[in-house]
Design a protein that fits this description.
alpha/beta; TIM Barrel; 13 helices; 8 strands; disordered N terminus; FAD-linked_oxidoreductase-like; oxidoreductase activity; oxidoreductase
Length: about 300
């Protein structure tokens, strides 16, 4: 039983497994955090996919300028398209055209967005996909959101029924209605066992999209708890709360080593496991996250098979 064997490998073997799962990782920035980085090439290997989070109230000019800067520095850029803050199809087409024309963008993360009341015509990423505008523009890669612990905006009762139905719809869309490569990018999690079960259950149900698992980068424990509550991370929040009760660990920064090592060991034992990539949320800062990834063998932009 692979789930029960996380700790039976040697430290050296676990380190190699961790290095393998960190190959071709991605990371997320916002325009205001990106402004604080003088030189991204000093932190991230070229080829690192950089998501740009579009928070409500951020001008599209700032988003496009950040995308252009990163693209010119050698990074494939994946801006967020939050459905609920996009007024209508004309606005969506304008954003796509600006990203493409001014920053060479050909990939996007489509999500509902953290807004309760839509600002216009769109309520979900599925509606964005159905416009056909990304395919018309020739976008090569489209990612959609995944929620291993559910999403009460979608399933108010705390279950997984509507969330999983949406993922299956997106998998069908990927097979039948787009030429773009598609994948799931998830909310951040802290506990490997439930994540593995979630991914395996989706695969058993016929969901064949690759999964890029969301991971909280190194940060103060209090910071992670605050973001977890705000983002609706549920079950695995207990891992942080348990850690907070241990006085010896309370003041130490959280690092995702154990979580990712457990996933890495499982993937090494199950090569067809459908979690294929790691996506970092640098909640403790981009520099801190990038340095942690480097120190643990992360070779972003380099597929595992090409690491010598």
């Amino acid at each position: 039983m692979a789930l029960l064997n996380f700790k039976r490998k040697s430290d050296a073997t676990q380190g190699a497994d961790l290095e393998a799962i960190l190959a071709d990782y991605s990371i997320e920035v916002m325009p205001r955090t990106a402004e604080k980085i003088e030189d991204f090439t000093a932190l991230l290997p070229k080829g690192t996919r950089v998501y740009i989070a579009h928070i409500e109230g951020t001008p599209i000019d700032d988003m496009v300028a950040t995308a252009r800067r990163l693209s010119e520095a050698g990074y494939p850029v994946m801006p967020h398209f939050p459905a609920r803050i996009i007024k209508d199809a004309d606005t969506l087409a304008d954003w796509i055209a600006r990203y493409q024309g001014e920053a060479g963008v050909d990939q996007a993360l489509l999500l509902a967005g953290g807004v309760t009341t839509p600002h216009g015509d769109f309520d979900s990423s599925m509606q964005l996909l159905e416009t056909g505008l990304f395919d018309k523009a020739g976008f090569k890669r489209l990612h959609v959101a995944g929620h291993p612990e559910g999403n009460k905006d979608i399933d108010p009762d705390g279950g997984m029924k509507a969330v999983n139905e949406a993922i299956m719809w997106k998998a069908d869309f990927a097979r039948e209605r787009t030429d773009a490569e598609m994948a799931i990018a998830t909310q951040f999690c802290f506990e490997a066992g439930p994540v593995i079960k979630w991914a395996d259950d989706l695969k058993a149900a016929g969901m064949d999209l690759p999964i890029h698992i969301g991971v909280a980068g190194p940060a103060k424990l209090q910071t992670l708890i605050k973001f977890s509550i705000a983002c609706g991370v549920g079950a695995s929040l207990k891992v942080l709360q348990k850690r907070a009760m241990d006085v010896t660990k309370l003041l130490l920064p959280y690092e995702p080593t154990e979580f990712l090592s457990d996933l890495a060991v499982h993937k090494a034992a199950n090569p067809d496991f459908n979690i294929t990539n790691v996506h970092f949320f640098p909640l403790g800062g981009i520099k801190t996250n990038a340095n942690w990834a480097k120190d643990n063998g992360g070779a972003s932009g380099v597929p595992a098979a090409n690491i010598g």
